[in-house]
Every structure is written in structure tokens, then in C-alpha cells.
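User: Sequence in, structure out. Go.
Assistant: Echoing your sequence, followed by the C-alpha cells.
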Amino acid sequence: MAENVVTFGLSNVYYAPLTVGTGGALTWGTPVRIENAQEFSLSRTTSETPVYADNKLIYVIKGYTGANITLNFSAISDSVKKALLGMVEDANGNIVELTNPNHPYFALILQVEGDKKGRRIVFLKCTANLGDENSGTINESPTVNADSLNIAVYPVEDNAGHSIIRYVVDSEDTNYASVISSAPAIPVI
């Protein structure tokens, strides 16, 4: 299996609705495409707890508790605003942003390319908030506006007790095509 030297691009961005049932059972729906994604950035949420004894540091407990994603768009569709941000449509067809919306859970799926192979990344449990919206006047040439989603990624636990944030499917893997057409599932380790 050839390894990438570089990765580039962003395409095939999807969300899959996630339902948390009684007892915490997770059920994902079929992925829905999100159009107009331009850029993706991820920062991991980590923690360190130093443990001292005998007047010295004896151990550091390190944790990886999740991630924060910024997903930039040329425009965020009304259907995505309703599905991921809890916005509602009124009787006139206006999209209404609420101060206390229901922010549903979902899986986020996206694709990056590489010099040797593509990768599809599945973040299993996410919530989103509307990020920055920008617009400016037209001068000699128009400037494309930019919108963003701030996405929090939470761990899910498998049957063996592993906390999982995401999994990566290479274009050479047997489930590469189905990642964007079938409901996500917790990988079996």
C-alpha cells in the first residue's frame, strides 16, 4: 500500500444524522451531501495532568478528548442550516436563527486527496455552531463571501471500551465507496 507524501484538496463533504437512543445507543442515518465546502481545519482537544510525589513530577496523565473543526464555505445552504444548526423556516419561507436551537448530533464525512491515494475521514459524533459570516462591498472586482461552521467532535465508545474520535478510509480500502452512501458505524477494532 503506497503512502502519501502530500495531501491536498477537499471534496465529498457529507453529514449523517445521528440519533442517541435510550441507554446511549447510537444510530446514524444515510449521509447527505454538503455543497460549497472550501477549507477544513482541525485542532485536537487534549489535556495533561501532572502527578507529583516525593516533591517531584512522577507521571503525566495525557488525554485526547475530542477535536474542534472549522469548515469554511462559499455559502452554507438553508437545508444545512436547518439540519445542523437548528434553524427553522417560518410561514413565509424565511430562515430563522434561534437563540436556543436544538443542535443535533451528526457524523461528518469528508475527502482529501493525496499524491498516491485519496482518504475519506469519518468523525462519528459532532455538533455544529454557525461561525463567522463575512460580506463586503463590490469594488473593481467582487470578493467572494465566506461562511464557516464551528464543529465540535466528541468521542464515541466501542464495545471494547475504546474511545474513538474518527476513522480514515483509504481509496484502496474495501469500504471506500460506501462511506458516502451508507450510514456510518463504529469501527470494530
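User: And one key feature?
Assistant: The longest helix spans residues 78-85.
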